[in-house]
Write a structure and sequence with these properties.
About 70% of the residues lie in helices and about 5% in strands. By secondary structure, it is mainly α. The chain has 16 helices and three strands. It has helices at about 5-55, 60-75, 85-95, 100-115, 120-140, 145-165, 165-175, 185-205, 220-255, 260-275, 290-300, 305-320, 330-340, 350-365, 370-380, 385-400, and strands at about 180, 410, 420-425.
C-alpha cells in the first residue's frame, strides 16, 4: 500500500475514533438526562390519567385548562408554537428550539391529559428531548452541525424513554426530518442515547409498550394482498387524518383570533362532544386522553366501528385549539380500531388487522417506512414482519406527500428517484 494510502487510512481511523469517543460521551449524557425526564413525564401522565378516570370532575375543567395553556405559552413568548415541527426545523436549519419549551410542554401535556383532551405524548417527547439537547448544545458550545446531531439524540432519547422502543426511536429521529434522506451521521449517537434512555427509564419503573397479536396469518400471495389492501385503506385514512389535523387550527384561528379564547372554546367543544357520545354509549370516556384501554382492546380483537372516526374528531378539536401532547398515540388508536374493524372484511383476523392498521397508518402520516417496521418489530415481537412490510409499503406510497409534520421536507419523490425538494402537504 502506498504511503499516501496509509496516511489516509490512519487519518480516517483517527477521525472515526475521535467521533466515537465524543458521541459516546454526549449520547450517554443525553440518554441519562432524558431517561430521568422521560420517566418523570410518564409517571405524571399516568397520575393525570388515573385521576381523570376515577373522577369525573376534571373533564369539566377543559375550557379553563385550555385558557391556562394558551396563557402560559403567551407569557413565555411562544404563542406561535409549532409543536414537533420546531424540532424538525431545528435539525434541518440549525435553529435551536428555546429551552423554555421543555417545562412548558411537560406541564401543558400533563394538564391536557388530566382534563381529558385527546392527545398523545410523542410530540411532547420530541420537544422535550430536542429542547433539552439544544440546551446542551449551548452549554458545550457545539458547532451547528454537531448541534443538529445532538438535537436528534434528544429526540431519540425522549421517544425511547416514553415508549420503550429504542430502535424505533433511533431510526425515527434520523428518518423523519427529510423524506428520502437518512441522517446516518447521527445513527450511532441516536442508538446509544436511545438505549441508555430506555434502560434508565426502565430502572425508574417504566414499562415498554408491547402487545401480543392473536391469530397471526402466514405469508402467502393472498395474505400479502390482504395486508397491502389494509395498507391502501390506511393511506386514504392517513390523508384524511393529516388534512383534518391541519384544517382544524385554521378554522379555530378564523373563528377565534384570540388564542386564549380559542383554547377555551376548543375545550368547551371537546367537553360537549364528550357528553354527546354518552347518548349512545353511556359511561364511556374512551376518546378522552390517549385512549390506551381502547387501543389494547382493539389489539385483542374488539373495537366499535365508529371508534376511529370519533378519535379523529376528538383529536382535531383538542390539538387544533392549542392543547398539547401529540398526534402519534391518537394515530395508533385510530389505526388499531380501524384495522380491527376492516380486517375481517378482507379475510384477516381482527387482532392482526389492528396491529397492521396501527403500524400502516403511522407510516402513512409520518412517511417513515423503516421506523414503522422497527415499530412492528419492537411492539409486536416481530411476528411475520413481511406482512407488516407489505402494509407499510402500500401506505407509504399511496399516502402521497401528506404528513402530520408540515415542517417535514420531501427531498425525493415517492414514485421515482427524482430530487423534488418540496414541503410536505
Amino acid at each position: 500500500m502506498e504511503e499516501s494510502a496509509w496516511k489516509s487510512l490512519l487519518h480516517n481511523t483517527a477521525d472515526g475514533l475521535k467521533a466515537l469517543c465524543k458521541w459516546t460521551m454526549l449520547s450517554i449524557l443525553v440518554g441519562l438526562v432524558m431517561g430521568c425526564v422521560g420517566a418523570a413525564f410518564l409517571r405524571s401522565l399516568d397520575w393525570a390519567t388515573q385521576l381523570r378516570e376515577t373522577n369525573l370532575w376534571p373533564v369539566f375543567l377543559l375550557p379553563l385548562a385550555g385558557a391556562v395553556i394558551a396563557l402560559l405559552y403567551k407569557t413565555a413568548g411562544v404563542e406561535k408554537d409549532r409543536g414537533a415541527n420546531f424540532v424538525l426545523v431545528a435539525v434541518r436549519e440549525a435553529d435551536l428550539p428555546p429551552l423554555r419549551i421543555a417545562p412548558l410542554i411537560f406541564i401543558c401535556t400533563v394538564l391536557t391529559h388530566l382534563v381529558g383532551g385527546s392527545s398523545g405524548r410523542e410530540g411532547a417527547a420530541l420537544q422535550l428531548g430536542g429542547s433539552i439537547a439544544a440546551g446542551f448544545e449551548r452549554i458545550l458550545k457545539l458547532d451547528a452541525k454537531d448541534g443538529r446531531v445532538i438535537t436528534m439524540c434528544g429526540m431519540a432519547a425522549g421517544f425511547s424513554a416514553l415508549f420503550g422502543t429504542p430502535l424505533t426511536a433511533a431510526i425515527f429521529s434520523i428518518e423523519v426530518i427529510s423524506v428520502g434522506v437518512m441522517y446516518y451521521a447521527a445513527l450511532l449517537p441516536c442508538v446509544f442515547a436511545s438505549l441508555i434512555s430506555v434502560q434508565v427509564a426502565g430502572f425508574l419503573g417504566t414499562t415498554p409498550t408491547a402487545f401480543v397479536l392473536e391469530q397471526v396469518p402466514e405469508l402467502s400471495p393472498l395474505t400479502m394482498a390482504q395486508a397491502a389492501g389494509i395498507g391502501l385503506l390506511c393511506a386514504l385514512l392517513a390523508v384524511i387524518f393529516c388534512r383534518l389535523m391541519h384544517l382544524s387550527p385554521k378554522l379555530y384561528q378564523r373563528l377565534f383570533p384570540n388564542p386564549i379564547l380559542r383554547a377555551a372554546a376548543g375545550g368547551g367543544l371537546v367537553l360537549l362532544l364528550t357528553f354527546v357520545v354518552q347518548l349512545w354509549n353511556p359511561g364511556t370516556y374512551d376518546y378522552n386522553g390517549a385512549g390506551g384501554a381502547i387501543l389494547t382492546a382493539a389489539i385483542g380483537g374488539q373495537a366499535r366501528p365508529e371508534a376511529f372516526l370519533l378519535k379523529i374528531l376528538f383529536t382535531m378539536l383538542t390539538l387544533g385549539a392549542g392543547f398539547k401532547g401529540g398526534e402519534i398515540v391518537p394515530v395508533f388508536f385510530t389505526g388499531a380500531t380501524f384495522g380491527c374493524v376492516i380486517a375481517p372484511l378482507l379475510g384477516l383476523p381482527a387482532s392482526f388487522g389492528a396491529g397492521l392498521g396501527m403500524v400502516s397508518l403511522f407510516c402513512g402520516v409520518t412517511n417513515c417506512p423503516l421506523t414503522s417496521l422497527m415499530l412492528a418489530y419492537e411492539v409486536f415481537g416481530g411476528v411475520n414482519l413481511s406482512l407488516f412490510a407489505a402494509g407499510c409499503a402500500a401506505a407509504y406510497l399511496l399516502s402521497g406527500y401528506e404528513s402530520l409534520f408540515q415542517a417535514q421536507k420531501i427531498l425525493y419523490s415517492k414514485y421515482r428517484p427524482d430530487f423534488i425538494n418540496r414541503q410536505a402537504d
